[in-house]
Amino acid sequence: MESQILEKIKAITAENRSIVLENRRWLHQHPELSFEELNTSEYIQKKLTELGIEFTSGIVKTGVVGIIKGKNPESKVIALRADMDALPILEENNFDYKSINEGVMHACGHDVHSASLLGVAAVLSKLTNDFEGSIKLIFQPGEEKLPGGASLMIKEGVLENPSPSAILGQHVFPDLPAGKVGFRPGMYMASCDELYVTVKGKGGHAALPHKFTDTVLIACEIISSLQTIVSRHAKPDIPSVLSFGKINTTGGATNIIPDEVKIEGTFRTMNEEWRTEAHQKMIALAQGIAQSMGGTCEFEVRKGYPFLKNNEETTRIAKQAAIVYLGKENVVDLDLRMTGEDFSYYTQSMKGCFYRLGTGESSGLHTSTFNVNESSLELGVGLMSWIAINMLNEQ
Question: Which among 60, 142, 327, 375 is most buried, taking Cβ atoms within 10 Å?
Answer without folding.
Answer: 142
